[in-house]
Structures are given as C-alpha cells and as structure tokens.
TrEMBL record:
Protein name as annotated: Matrixin family metalloprotease
GO biological process: proteolysis
Keyword terms, alphabetized: Hydrolase, Metal-binding, Metalloprotease, Protease, Zinc
Species for this entry: Secundilactobacillus folii
Family matches, as SUPFAM superfamilies: Metalloproteases ('zincins'), catalytic domain
Length: 212
C-alpha cells in the first residue's frame, strides 16, 4: 500500500514580519480568521500554519520542468476536483510573490524495505508554505508544493494521490476518516468528503474571496 510522507510545512511569517517591524514598530498585524483546533472523526484537520490565515481562494499553479505527461494529467484532474467545489480557484500560471501558488513536482525515492509486502510505500508529499508581510503593502500568501514519487509510478501516479497531495498544499491535514481524500494511506478515494469540504470552507470561506 502507498502512504503519504508529509514533510513539515515551512512558515516564513515570523522572519518577514520581524524585518518589517524593525523598520516601523507601529505597524499592525493582519486580522486572522479563528479556526477550531479540535476535530471529530469525520472532520478533516487543517495544517497548523494555515489555521487562522486570511488567504485568498485564488491559486496559480505550474509544473516543474521534469514532470512527465502522466503526472501532469493526474494533477490537472486534481485541480478540477478542487475547482469544482467553488471554494478555491486554481489557475494555470506562475503568479507573483504576493499571490498564492502551487508548484507540482516529481521525485524518485525508494522506501527502505520496500521489497517487503507489509512495508508502506511513500507515494508523495506536499504542503503549504506561508509568507506574510505586515504593515504597508501587507499580504499573506501560500507558496505551496505537491509532489509524486515516480519511483513507484503504479502506486504514485494516481488521481487519488494527486488529490491528496494538492489537499496538503491547500492546507488540509491528515484525516482519520477513510472516506476522506486526506486519509494518510491511499484508499483510491477521488471524491472530497464532507469533512474535506468543511475544512476548505474554514480556510477559504464560502468562495467569496477571489483576489488575484
């Protein structure tokens, strides 16, 4: 079975804010939405560094140069799944440093002991990276990444895995529900659960913010 190996997300908020505050200590921080920190078995958790962030629902996505057509296809399908919710809007393109973006990539990594049928195979990883500037010209942006492990193409280059990794990029964390696309072991799920939808609503609202 394939499993997602989610790396620790990178949070650049403190570094950027400290630089700005050194110039003008009177600058105010941005207002954040309050998000519940506890979830039930059916709810999908939210990545800790995304909780409370005031993120636009619009993302620009692009592929690294080495991403094969087969991986691009499953990522494009994943993009369509999230776009159909109306809660986020993913657009092909680079975007600017102040805009949300997702970089799709591939890598090749053999899981130790993978010849053993009981070993979980790493199929991909992804996550958010928050950059925030406060004060004049304030912005908060998520420069996320989502990748597939092409060492195991049969297990990793799948729509279910791409949806899962893009979910991490957008701020969804691992769920304990097997009906969720965010369950850490691939179940072949390609439809967002109600818990997944509610978590997206908690991050992005009901689709009212479309700043690009």
């Amino acid at each position: 079975m394939s499993v997602d190996n989610k790396p620790s997300p990178v949070d650049l908020r403190a570094a950027v804010s400290n630089v700005v505050k050194t110039v003008d200590p009177m600058l105010k921080t941005t207002t954040h939405r309050t998000v519940k920190s506890e979830t039930s078995a059916d709810e999908t958790p939210i990545e800790s560094i995304v909780q409370g962030q005031n993120l636009s629902r619009t993302y620009y996505y692009h592929f690294d140069s080495n991403v094969p057509a087969s991986a691009q296809a499953v990522f494009e399908n994943a993009v369509n799944v999230y776009n159909q919710t109306g809660l986020v809007k993913l657009i092909a393109g680079e975007g600017t440093s102040k805009q949300n973006s997702v970089t799709f990539f591939v890598y090749s990594k053999k899981t130790s002991g993978s010849n053993n049928s009981s070993v979980m195979i790493e199929s991909g990883h992804g996550g958010p990276q928050i950059t925030q500037q406060t004060g004049w010209g304030a912005y908060t942006a998520n420069h996320a990444r989502a990748g597939l492990n092409v060492y195991y193409p049969r297990l990793a280059i799948k729509q279910s895995v791409a949806i899962h990794e893009l979910g991490h990029a957008l701020g969804l964390d691992h769920s304990t529900s097997r009906q969720s696309v965010m369950y850490p072991v691939d179940q072949g799920v390609t439809k967002l659960s109600q818990g997944d939808i509610e978590a997206l609503k908690a991050i992005y609202g009901s689709g009212e913010k479309s700043n690009s």
